[in-house]
Amino acid sequence: MLGPDHPQTLSALETMTIPLERLGKYNPAINILTTVLHKLQTILPADHPRILVTAQNLAFLLNRQGKYSEALELNSDVLEKKE
Fold first, then answer.
1. What Pfam families does this protein's entry cite (predicted)?
2. Residue 74 in contact with residue 58, Cβ under 8 Å?
3. Does some domain include residue 1?
């Protein structure tokens, strides 16, 4: 059995945000992605592709919710780590 902080468990949680986003339920989706991102950051290197994808997904939702400065800051951080 996989634990709550296992990368596959976190990936499954992240997938759950897709229908939430499509229903316009941004707050629950953002809360889930924020939790997933923080947990990934404790178990993987800062520039790990999984972290960068999750951060981009969170930035997308923040943008959809109109939180443009937060989305820009997160995307800028992702871009910096990809370079």
1. TPR_10
2. yes
3. no
- 35-52 pLDDT per residue, tens: 999 999 999 998 899 999
Its pTM surpasses 0.70: yes
Q: What's the CATH code of the domain at 36? A: 1.25.40.10
Instruction: Extract the tokens encoding 78.
Output: 């992702």
Q: Is the distance from CB of 32 to CB of 17 less than 8 angstroms?
A: yes
- Which domain covers residue 66, as residue numbers? 7-82
Closest by Cα among 49, 56, 57, 51 to 21: 57
The amino acid sitting at 53 is: V
